[in-house]
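Review box. Two proteins, two foldings.
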Amino acid sequence: MTTRFPFSTTMRRPIAAATALMLAVTPALVQAQQGPPGGQMQLPPGASGGPPPGAPTGPVLTDAQKIVADLPPPGPGLIPPRPPLPADAVMPTADPRDLQGTWVNNQPLQFRSQRDMYGALAPYTMAGAKVLSRRVMSLKAGKPFINASAICRPPGPQWQRDLNFPFSIIQDKDHVEVLFEEYHGRWYISLDPQGVPLPTQKQYMGRSIGHWDGGTLVVETTDFRQAIWLDVDGTPLSANGKLIQRMRKVSDVGRVPFLEVVTTIIDPTYYTAPWTIVRTFGWAPHQAVFAEYNCEEQVGDPSVSADAGLVPEPRD
C-alpha cells in the first residue's frame, strides 16, 4: 500500500516579548522568586524533601497497558510534499453546517494510536492488549495478518479518514456522504433515519446516524460487519464497538479553514473506558479530482508476486 504523509508547521513566540517582561519585573518580585535566604525550602516539622520511598514517579500502568508499552514502537509519521493551495482557490462557505468540499489529512499519519487527545495512555483491557500485541509482533516477524485494507475492503471510517489521500464531503438536508480516493471508499451518514432508511445489511463502514449540535456534526457509528482496525498497526475495535465522531469546520481569522474530527472510541471488549482522539484535515479543493486507485496493485496483480506474505489472524 502506498502511503503519503502530510505537512505540519510550528510557531515560535517572539523573544523580544519575553525579554521586555523580564525587564519589567521588580526587585521585590525577584527576591520572592528566589525563595527563603540560603535557598532552602522550609518544610513542616518531621517532613523530608521528595516523594516517600517507593512512591510511583509517573502514571501507574495496568497489566494490559504494560503489554502495550513493551511493544516495538510504531513507525514514524513523515511529512510528504503536497501541492500548495493555489492563491485563487475557492474557500469553504461561511456556514458552519456546510462541510462540503475536499479535505486531506494535514498531520503525520499515526501508525498506532497510543494516547488519547489529552496524552493519557489508551485504556486497554487484557483482551485488547493481546490483540494489538499479536498484530504488531506478526508485522515485526514479516508475516502481517490479513486485514480489510490488504484485501481491498473498506477499513472503517477512522482508518479510512486517517490515510493520506483526499476525501470529498457531499451533503443534503437528510444525509451526508464522504467519498474517499483510496479504495474509492464511501461513508454514508443518515441525518434522518426515519425518512431515509439505513441499509438492511451490515456494512464494513458500519451504520452511521448524525445530528447537528450547533455547528458540529455528531455522528454515531455502530453495527460493523466485522471487527476493524483503527490504524495501520491494528489498534482494535470489535464488531460491537462504537465510534462517536464530532466533526466541525474551524475558521480562524487569517487562516484557511480546516476540518476537525474528534472521535470517541467505546468498546468494552477491548477498552476499560471510552477514550478520545482528534485529527485535523486541511482544505484541498485542488485535489477534488481523484486519481484512479487500483487496489489490485497490492493483491492479485499478475505483474507482481501473488504472495504478499499475509497470513490469517487467529480468532479470539
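Next protein.
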Amino acid sequence: MSLSSSACAISTSFFPLKARHPKTRVPFNIQNPLRCSSPPSFRPLSRKLYPVKATVLQEDDEEEAVVEKSFPTKIPLGLEIEEVGESRANSSSSGLERWVIKVEQSVNIFLTDSVIKILDTFYRDRDYARFFVLETIARVPYFAFISVLHLYESFGWWRRADYLKVHFAESWNEMHHLLIMEELGGNSWWFDRFLAQHMAFFYYFMTVFMYALSPRMAYHFSECVESHAFETYDKFIKAQGDELKKKPAPEVAIKYYTGGDLYLFDEFQTSRAPCTRRPKIDNLYDVFVNIRDDEAEHCKTMKACQTHGNLQSPHSYADDFEEMPDCMIPEADCEGIVDCIKKSFTPTQAKQNQNS
C-alpha cells in the first residue's frame, strides 16, 4: 500500500496500522485533508489485533487478508473472572453453536447462489444493467439493520450508536454506487427497474426477519452478497480495463469520492483509520476500481459484525472518556429478538445499583 508522507504521518500518529500487502496500491488524494490534517487532542489508542479473516481477490492472484478489529470492546474488570467460569459452562454448548453456524451459512450460500443464477440468466452480456440490479439489492440489508436497531432502541434494548452510524454510512456508499449505475444507463429499461425493485422489496423483509432472529446470520448473508459484488467488479475491470480508461468518470462519482466532506466515506471502512484512503478519479476505470475496493471494505465490516460487540466506528475515541465516567451513556445491546426480550426481564447491574 503506497501512501503519501503526510498520510503516513496521520495514520502513524493515531492508529499504528501496518500495510500487510505491499502489492495493493491505494490511490491517495490530499486535496481535501478534512479535519484530520490538524492533530486533535486525542491520545493514541492502544489497539489489539484480532485474527478476522476475509478473502480479498487481487488483480493477479487470490490472497488471504487479516482484518484488524479496529477498536476492541472494553471488558470491565469485574467481569473477567466471571467470564472464565462462564467459558467452562459454555464449552458443552460450543458443538451445538458450531452446528447452528454451519446451517446458517449453508442457507446463506444457497440463497446467494440462487440470486447469482437469476442475475446470470438475465444479465450475462448487460454489465451496467446487472450492476444497477446488484447495487439496488446490496443496499437493502443496511436499511433492514437500521430499522431493527431503531425498534430495539424504542424498547430500550439497544444503546450502541456505532452500529447505526456505520450501517448508515454503508447505505450511503451503496446509494452512490447506485447513482453511478443510473448515470451510466443501467436503469434505462423498465424490466430492470421492475426486477430490482421487487427483489429489494422481498429482500428487505427477509433481512429484517433474519436480523431479528440471528444478527450473525444476517451479517454473513450480507457478506456473501458483498463478496459476489467484489468478484463481479473485479472480473469486469480485468476484462474491460482498457476501454474504461478511455471514458470519462460520471459527475456523481467525482463528487462522492473527491468531494468536500468525506466523513461518511471513512465511516463504513472500519478496518482502516479515517483519512487513510483518498481515491483519485481520472476516468471510468478509476471509478470501478474504487467501487470494487468499497465492496471489499463492506466485506471486512460484515465479517467483523458476525462477532457480537465487535463493531465500532472508526471515528470513536472511547479511551478519551475514561476519566469522565459521568459522560458515558450505558451501551445496552442484545443479540437478536429472543435475547432482547430475555434481557428486558433481567435487571441490569446499573438498575440494581440505583435501587440499592
